[in-house]
Amino acid sequence: MGHRLSKIATRTGDDGTTGLGDGSRVRKDDARIAAMGDVDELNSNLGVLLTEPLPEDVRDALTAIQHDLFDLGGEICIPGHVVIGDAHLARLDGWLAHYNATLPPLKEFILPGGSRAAALAHVCRTVCRRAERAIVTLGLAQSLADAPRRYVNRLSDLLFVLARVLNRADGGSDVLWQPERRVQ
């Protein structure tokens, strides 16, 4: 993977450009940079979620996902570089099947909330959806493999499921949307 910075304040971005992992420079508003930023923001939000008390298996999954997201950022940062593949998608699918099996079926829409950890998982889910949109935009404008898009799509589903799992782990349940609720 590209070169590592030994000095953070390089001033090379003062002109509104930034370096990619292959050494090329692009504008800071380039679709590739937007996607990288959204993936980085997701990873940072997962870091906040990981500060909460969590079941150990959920903590292990989220930690593995953080590493995957760092790899995904590297893939986006180096045009033509491929890191995320079928094994990453299969692992997400395995976690989805495992955690879905522990939950009652949904009959209503749920609101983001419940325990603090579940609410943070919902924040991660919404940031993940934004990262997915940025990756879709990038893939339409520039060359990008399909796996990154598929990975964040499945990850957002997993984060929704994990929010439900975390509410139960905290002794609560889903916060149900009440469509018939009226303003008083």
Computed Rg: 18 Å
Mean pLDDT: 92
- Secondary-structure-based class equals mainly alpha
Number of helices: 5
Helix content: 55-70%
Description:
The chain is mostly helical and 184 residues long. It is built from five helices and four strands, in the order E-E-H-H-H-E-H-H-E. Strand 1 (17-19) and strand 2 form a beta hairpin. The longest helix is centred in the last third of the chain and has 26 residues, at 116-141. The chain is elongated, with a radius of gyration of 18 Å. The mean pLDDT is 92.
Quick overview:
This protein is mainly alpha-helical. Helices cover 57% and strands 5% of the residues.
From the structure above, extract its key features.
4 strands; mainly alpha; two-stranded antiparallel ribbon; 184 residues; 57% helix
Topology:
Blueprint lengths: L16 E3 L5 E3 L3 H19 L6 H22 L8 H15 L9 E2 L4 H26 L5 H23 L5 E2 L8
Helix pairs in contact: 1-2, 1-4, 3-5, 4-5
